[in-house]
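Running low. Got one?
___
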Amino acid sequence: MNTTRRFIAFLVLTSSVVAFAFTAAALKPTADAHYLAFVGTYTNKTDSKGIYAFDFDAASGKLTPNGLAAETPDPSWVVVHPNGKFAYAANEAGKHSTITAFSVDSNTAKLTQLNQLPALGADPCHLSFDKSGKYLFAANYSSGNVVVFPILPDGKLGEHTANVKDAGTLGPNKERREGPHAHWVQASPDNRFVFVSDLGLDEILSYRFDAAKGTLSPNDPPGAKLAPAAGPRHVAFLPDGKFVYVVSELNSTVTAFSYDIPHGSFRDLQVVSTLPGGFHGRNDTAEITVHPSGKWLFASNRGHDTIAVFSIDPATGKLQPAGDFPTGGKEPRHFAMDPSGHFLLAENQNSNSLVVFRIDLATGALTPTGETAAVSSPVCLAFLPTR
């Protein structure tokens, strides 16, 4: 590596570390930290009507229902814009799927629809923002494509600037490998790349992102392969950006990678099971999250119905099992940590419940607080600070 490239790499890494330090400081809880939690649900064949709001007190861990925030069909993924003024939902409805933009009233916990556009694919299952907050990325599962929508100044979605079909070699499991299945999409910490987890291809795809135009182009190298029939689902970066973790739905594993910041590429380090030894029942993993401290990783098991916890070696990025904790219900499709990093909220889809756990910051262990809430078919949750 020549001197110029070393200097560029140093600047990128330094900026990532500074950004992490700033974020960690910003997330430090205060005695009066309060949040809104918007919960997306499946409305088809349930009594749910859309997105529900809850008040969450990060000092006490108390969770209080705040009613229906927006009536909208099958909002399977909900995200709140970094400015707190807008929210976006993936309406998962096969070939008729849409992406909906809302304005947020944090005083009333209501969402008002701004506009709605076709998802340009079937069954969107994940949304995220680029680091500037100017673009929304959507991963369409059944059609295996990723779409980039510009976010207009008034919060509405503009006409798409990119629509990329995942391409690669299909995995060996024919039941879930009839085509590519984009399951997660997110920009790199420096906003130069966009990564897609494709369950059908057993691959994390890497694209170069033009933040001025909102366009995607294949990166070289094109991504990272996982084990055949692993079924990669969701991905989590360590806060400093040096390591990346992929939870695979079909073989119930987490794969650890080191991340090459200048090139947007991955090198595999380790594969660990999310299940305890001796378990042989049906299981599908779902969500994965790294604690803001960078010390702990959490992954949910559907079937075993637990959150698996791992400690993270800060030097090597490797994982060490630190226990598995029942979620108090069935099919924890999603879970989320409150921004303070002191609590984890598990969404048990088939038990129609939210369950609050306190996180032991020394061990990563999860302890139920006794706070629960009923909501029909909860499948995602997004926090919004209110003060």
User: Anything to note?
Assistant: The two ends are 47 Å apart (CA to CA). Confidence is low (pLDDT under 50) at residues 1-31.
